[in-house]
Amino acid sequence: MDFKILNFTIFCVNNVAAYLHQSAREVYHKMQNAGMIDGYIVPCYDVLHSFSKEYIIEDLVSLMKQRGALQ
Fold this sequence. Notes:
Layout: H1 3-20, H2 24-33, H3 36-41, H4 45-48, H5 53-66
Helix pairs in contact: 1-2, 1-5
């Protein structure tokens, strides 16, 4: 994985964790189990990183709900 994509993935996990008031470790595991890291964040990096922080958080939280990682 490219360093910039790794940094972006960490950015996503940390910001979603802060938004959800959960630990980054917990959010990472939920995203990983839902296939979001390798199946969405990494392959969509080129598009995703161009959006605002707020949009990215909303998008990822919505996807977590769709994939059953959040209630």
